[in-house]
Amino acid sequence: MFEAKTPITSSQIAYLAVTAFECNDMTASWCGSVKPASPVPEGEGPWYFNPAFWDSDFQMTVAFDGPNDPEGSRRSGAVIGRAEVQAGFDKMATDYPSHLGDFINENFDANTADVWWQLVVLKELIYG
Fold it and tell me: pLDDT value at position 1?
């Protein structure tokens, strides 16, 4: 078997996060909030658009609808850090390589961003 590994930069993640968190009706339908739970480096724009945040030993708190929660309840929550983001990319590479390819080739859209964020937070693609 052959493997190809492609590094993902913090700037790439920042753009993906903006696409997932801002004006993405798919993500907004299940994810209620994402807030930094660790210090945020100074910079312009929202904290998640700052590549230095993604380079740090970050943590975020997320409120969302779990698979068994009533729609819109945001009853579930998680703390997300580097390990969860890496696991989301790993799962994307294994199970959704076309989305990962679109991301790496800077051809991603709201759907790709939502798939990534679901894999990070929910560990699987549940919604859509």
Answer: 73
Question: Cα-Cα-Cα-Cα dihedral of 89, 62, 41, 85, to 10°?
Answer: -10
Helices (H) then strands (E): counts for the chain: 6, 3
* AA identity, residue 127: Y
Q: Is 74 exposed, middle or buried (0-12, 13-18, 19+ CB in 10 A)?
A: middle
CA distance 19 to 105: 15
**113, 19 Cβ separation under 8 angstroms:** yes
> How many residues can be counted in the chain?
128
The phi and psi torsions of 33 (rounded to 5 degrees) equal: -160, 150
HSE of 128, CA atoms in CB hemisphere, 13 A: 15
pTM for this structure? 0.94
pLDDT band, very low/low/confident/very high, at 43 (cuts 50, 70, 90): confident
Instruction: Identify whether the C-beta of residue 122 lies closer than 8 Å to the C-beta of residue 64.
Output: yes
- Is residue 85 predicted with pLDDT exceeding 90? yes
